[in-house]
Design brief:
Layout (H helix, E strand, L loop, with lengths): L17 H14 L3 E7 L12 E6 L5 H9 L17 E6 L3 E5 L10 H17 L3 E9 L6 H13 L3 E6 L9 H12 L10 E2 L8 H9 L13
Length: 234
């Protein structure tokens, strides 16, 4: 992805102001750090110790969640994608440079899953959202080709009730016409305006073309621990 793209949309080139350029560079540097799998759990009792700020990624099954995490970190298989909706039913934690924890939540909205499995997912995620004090933001991923679905609205309502800030991230934005993307971002922003915990900025991304990746890295880096200095390093 070109680092000089329009933030959020990635449409056309522009020269960022120095402050924005610094944020983009900070994001590039953080997400170039070592990123290690820490733990995967389907029970709250086995959650890793909460030491770092956490950014969680949520979305419908096959929305491109694993691909986006891989794209952000510049790795091809950090988070494993699955062609089987609802296959990954645990919370996975990845330590990014000892400054930020990336949290891959189980996909939702898979229609053929047994009711008890859906209930188990709902309880696990809801308990995590309510009890994780280090959780800084949830990225709610929405497929650009389909827009917001009822299950996305249900997820956002759950986040509203848990008082957790979340941001809608449009994925697979390269799969729709460039002219259709700005109106989609506008419509999505209008739709989430009634949700009290929603971050107002909607970002459009593509893990394949790199569109919007720099802007998302910059936004998440602002929520991480500061860069260690020689005085603060252990």
């Amino acid at each position: 992805m070109a680092d000089h793209e329009t933030p959020g949309l990635g449409l056309g080139s522009f020269t960022p102001d120095p402050e924005e350029a610094a944020r983009i560079e900070a994001g590039r540097l953080l997400f170039a750090q070592d990123c290690q799998f820490v733990a995967g759990t389907a029970t709250l009792a086995r959650l890793p110790v909460a030491k770092l700020p956490e950014i969680a990624f949520a979305g419908r099954s096959n929305v491109g969640k694993s691909s986006l995490i891989n794209g952000l970190t510049g790795r091809s298989a950090l988070a494993r994608a699955s062609n089987t909706p609802g296959r990954t039913q645990q919370i996975n934690f990845f330590d990014l440079g000892r400054r930020l924890m990336l949290v891959d939540l189980p996909g939702y909205g898979f229609a053929q899953a047994p009711k008890n499995q859906v209930a188990q997912w709902t309880d696990l995620v809801n308990d995590y959202l309510k009890g994780r004090t280090v959780l800084r933001r949830v990225c709610v991923l929405v497929d650009s080709r389909h827009g917001l679905k009822d299950s996305d609205d249900e997820m956002m309502t759950m986040l509203d009730r848990a008082a957790v800030t979340y941001q809608v991230i449009l994925t697979k934005a390269d799969k729709i016409a460039a002219s259709a993307l700005p109106p989609l971002v506008t419509r999505t922003g209008e739709a989430i305006a009634r949700h009290p915990a929603a971050h107002p900025e909607v970002l459009a991304t593509s893990s394949e073309s790199g569109l919007g990746i720099a802007a998302l890295r910059a936004a998440l880096t602002a929520l991480s621990l500061p860069t260690p200095t020689p005085e603060t390093r252990p």
